[in-house]
Amino acid sequence: MTAKLTAVRAGALTTVQDAGRRGYAHLGVPRSGALDAPTMRLANRLLGNDPGAAVLETTLTGCAVRPDRDVTVVVGGAHCPVTVDGRPAPWGTPVRVPAGALLDVGAVTAGVRAYVAVAGGIAVEPVLGSRSTDLLSGLGPEPLRDGAVVPVGTPAAAVAVPAAAPWPGPPAELVLPLRPGPRSDWFTPSALRTLTSATFRVSPHSNRIGLRTEGPALERASTGELPSEGMVLGAVQVPPDGRPVIFLHDHPTTGGYPVVGVVAEPALASAAQAAVGTPVRFTLD
Amino acid sequence: MTGTPHLTARPAGRHALLVELPDAGRTAAFHAEVLRRRAAGTLEPVEEVVPGARTVLLDGVRDPEALARSLRAWEVPPAAADDGEAVEIPVRYDGPDLADVAALWGVAPREVAALHSAHDYRVAFCGFAPGFGYLTGLPGELHVPRRATPRTRVPAGAVALAGPYSAVYPRATPGGWQLIGTMPGPGPLWDPARRRAALLAPGTRVRFVPADAPDGTVAA
């Protein structure tokens, strides 16, 4: 028999995420998946899971869950206190949670999204090959609610735990390497200079669809309407207000605002952990 | 027309190319050619092939610059009329914007069904929601603007027009398109449990077929 987790405190926004839904963008299906993918993979490896096994992705306030059987978990990503039945437990390393005990992942002290990986992985039913919650189009499981029950898969028999887990720290400043295009020609030369020289800040309106920025507006060279075109992960789309939006994993697959440049995927993990107000700089990739 | 396609390959980050074509017809032809080469195993691995109105995005490519160079040598035949799967969508022409669309077209509301269903459509691309296809095929004189005020809820199965496009809403969402009819039983439009999750996938040919109205009369 495998374990189940009951959500005692679902937190501000806790979703199931894995490596995402690939190969369906042409049908209007976003990629989804863990925003801080390296953290998901590392937490899974520490438990002997497949690196892309489904985990819980929490937002700012963590969550609390109670397993009905003994489970082993790793909490990583954003820094936060971890307790088991009120007793402090380590962050970033495997923790045994006995059947009936309460695992509490507290509010973040640095970063945005803490991840809870469980040996065996979260075993909700996949949709189009992924267990991820897609907040743009509503595919996959609903965000966690108080009282929800989440199934866990079968843990690996033997675990070869890496000696040291290289957890990256949440960024004090978000530096995003960007390649201009496909629509950089829709912007004035001064807008492109602004993009790579000004400091922006993470807007409170950011979410899993996009990291929104506050800062100088980018001026367009042409005011026409762009016919809908495919959008990639990391695309820096510029809506009419001129403030760049960096597309994260739940981004729409097609869009009609010009993309001035694309941020390299490895940098998006730190974007997922950049708190509101964090300075943002774009560098040429 | 065959020969070197009139395309512009635009960079889209480290692993993608946005290929831009001059018009919807050549976009459809290029998209079909990408799918043919992918099926034949002669295209380098591409994770996502995402058509747009005038573009095809090739995402998840190891070396986009090399792919851009190889595209210059492609021979792209025009899209054949019988290319792609064909589906029929039954429609009751009973939408709340039928009278407005009839007025824009300068015809009586009862004539909308015959005019709309007379054309062959093709799914140019998807977006907005899973399984929401943008269908081209409506002649220019029948293009209509979006509604000035979008609806907070458009029901699943609504058959709608906006600009050059026709669409059938796969599920209830907000929407600003002009609603001219209803597809009875819209379930097949989107079913992620089915191998072919979206009925209206890009490249699919579509015929709208006027269906019997609920009172037994024919809507056309």
Topology at a glance:
The complex is a heterodimer of chains A (285) and B (220).
Chain A: E1 4-9, E2 15-17, H1 37-45, E3 55-57, E4 63-67, E5 71-79, E6 82-84, E7 87-89, E8 95-97, E9 103-105, E10 110-118, E11 149-151, E12 174-180, H2 189-197, E13 200-202, E14 210-214, E15 229-230, E16 235-237, E17 245-247, E18 254-255, E19 259-263, H3 268-272, E20 279-284
Parallel strand pairs in A: 12-20
Antiparallel strand pairs in A: 1-4, 1-11, 2-3, 3-10, 4-9, 5-8, 5-10, 6-7, 6-9, 12-19, 13-14, 13-20, 14-17, 15-18, 16-17, 16-19
Chain B: E1 8-11, E2 16-20, H1 24-40, E3 48-51, E4 55-59, H2 64-71, E5 86-91, H3 98-105, H4 112-116, E6 121-126, E7 133-136, E8 151-154, E9 158-162, E10 165-168, E11 173-175, E12 178-182, E13 205-210
Parallel strand pairs in B: 5-13
Antiparallel strand pairs in B: 1-2, 2-4, 3-4, 6-7, 6-13, 8-11, 9-10, 9-12
Quick structural summary:
The complex is a heterodimer of chains A (285) and B (220). Chain A is mainly beta and 285 residues long.
Descriptive notes:
The complex is a heterodimer of chains A (285) and B (220). Chain A has 285 residues and is mainly beta. Chain A has two domains: 148 residues, no CATH class; 111 residues, Cyclophilin (Beta Barrel). Helices cover 8% and strands 30% of the residues of chain A. The longest helix of chain A has 9 residues. The radius of gyration of chain A is 20 Å and the shape is elongated. The model of chain A has no long low-confidence stretch (mean pLDDT 96). Chain B has 220 residues and is α+β, with helices and mostly antiparallel strands. Chain B folds into two domains: 64 residues, Gyrase A, domain 2 (2-Layer Sandwich), CATH 3.30.1360; 125 residues, Beta Barrel (Cyclophilin). Helix content of chain B is 17%, strand content 28%. Chain B has four helices and 13 strands. The C terminus of chain B is likely disordered. The chains are: A mainly beta (285), B alpha+beta (220). At the A-B interface, β15, β18 and β19 of A face β2, β3 and β4 of B.
